[in-house]
Automatic annotation (TrEMBL):
Keywords: Plasmid. This is Uncharacterized protein. It comes from the Bacteria.
Length: 78
């Protein structure tokens, strides 16, 4: 089954968006002021940091899966 160029474009957009979200979360985790705010939130919610790092892991997994799918779609186009 052959795929269309728009399916490949849609996957590329999804990957770009997820990479942007991942970069944004990483910047937040690396920023001292943001980390102070996160620590304050973590004091009220014990699982806050766990959820934050879990979200980063989910995004990385989705990027990997979409990248593999993009590779497959490109192979079908050729």
């Amino acid at each position: 089954m052959k795929c269309s160029w728009w399916q490949v474009a849609k996957i590329k957009v999804n990957i770009a968006y997820l990479r942007w979200v991942q970069a944004s979360l990483t910047r937040t985790l690396n920023d001292k002021q943001s980390m102070l705010e996160i620590q304050q939130l973590a004091r009220t919610d014990d699982n806050y940091m766990v959820h934050l790092y879990f979200e980063v892991g989910i995004i990385k997994t989705r990027i990997k899966a979409l990248s593999e799918r993009l590779y497959e779609q490109r192979a079908r186009l050729s």
